[in-house]
Amino acid sequence: MLNNYDLPYRIIDSLKQTNSNDEEDYDNCFTYLTYDSKDKNKTKYVLKIFDLEKMTNLSEFIKDILWYKQLNHYNLMSLRDCFLIDTKLHLIKPYASFGSCADLLSVHPFGIREQLIAHIMWQLLQALRYLQDRHIMHRGISSKNIYICDNGRVLLDNFSHCISMISPFDGKLRRQIYDYTDSLKDEILYLAPEIIYQNADGYNFKSDVYSLGTVACELANGSNTYIDMPFGSLSMLYAKIQGSEPILLDQTQLTDEMIALSDDNSSSYVEEIKRRRYTKEFHSFVKNCVSTSLESRHSVDELIMHPFVKHPKKISHDSQHLADDMAKILGFYKAKELNNTEANIEQIFDNSNKKYNSINLSWEF
């Protein structure tokens, strides 16, 4: 994949990485902001370095890398370069200055604006339609896997949970799948009830729609509906199986019980809920995404026609107009300025001071 051994990348700064699915793998990953010195525009990229010897879930990680090779869409994270030095795997990805949606919520814990959520949902729907046209389920849609660039471009990342609806045994297209790998527990807060059931009915593309609706609620409310529940995952599993559906928290949903249960730690959040009122289109969009009934839950094609995404859809034919509109909204969410301290990437790549020409850097897959 990389044929030039004279690596041109230069480090600008180290970056804080969003928590990965595996804490041990996260500890073995180092993330940097970099650029190609041969690029006159000095476009910024993200460099991630993984020590393969210390990774505990290598098969899932390799699967993630292989999907990058197969997928190509404006709203899917891409891989610019991938190369190996000793046991260190180096990935070069596009740089999203606003980080992930989880990063955005860590700065704005009461949630973000409805107009921004509409833009994010519209672009994610384009990514999901692309995947579904190729009979692929993502199964990992969550706030930490959705990134926002400074030009308003939204990128869906993490393909380690992707699965094809085409049977590997007979090559036929399956209407339902019944794959329940242990790794799916990483996204359990966002998984649809039918995946958790693990029954004979299986699940399909609409399970990704449920995850999308859960993310929409999280972006509006400031946190996932099922996080920090008493008794942890057990309460969350029981709630989903009993038909609990995430809702948007605004003045129309605020109850006397919620007000009575508020304390000093939550009183400011309750006051925020009292002030805000989401549109009926937004409430409808979320309801159509997170319905526990598959018959009531909308498909991706139906959601693309939903009034909630009418505005981004209207201007989507003009990429510059769309970018300008997103930039106007994102102006409220100031991206954190980074230090401009440069370092040669060679210092990061080769701590043992080995020569590049003594190492095979190419990695074809």
How would you sum up this structure in a few lines?
It holds the Pfam family Pkinase. The protein has helices at about 25, 60-70, 100-105, 115-135, 195, 205-220, 235-240, 255-260, 265-275, 280-290, 300-305, 310-315, 320-330, 345-350, and strands at about 10-15, 30-35, 45-50, 80-85, 90-95, 135, 145-150, 155, 165, 345. It is α+β, with helices and mostly antiparallel strands.
Show the helix and strand layout:
Layout: E1 9-14, H1 23-27, E2 29-36, E3 44-51, H2 58-70, E4 81-85, E5 88-94, H3 101-107, H4 114-133, E6 136-137, E7 146-148, E8 154-156, E9 163-164, H5 193-197, H6 206-221, H7 233-241, H8 256-261, H9 267-275, H10 280-290, H11 300-304, H12 310-315, H13 319-330, E10 343-344, H14 345-349
Antiparallel strand pairs: 1-2, 1-10, 2-3, 3-5, 4-5, 6-9, 7-8
Helix pairs in contact: 4-6, 6-10
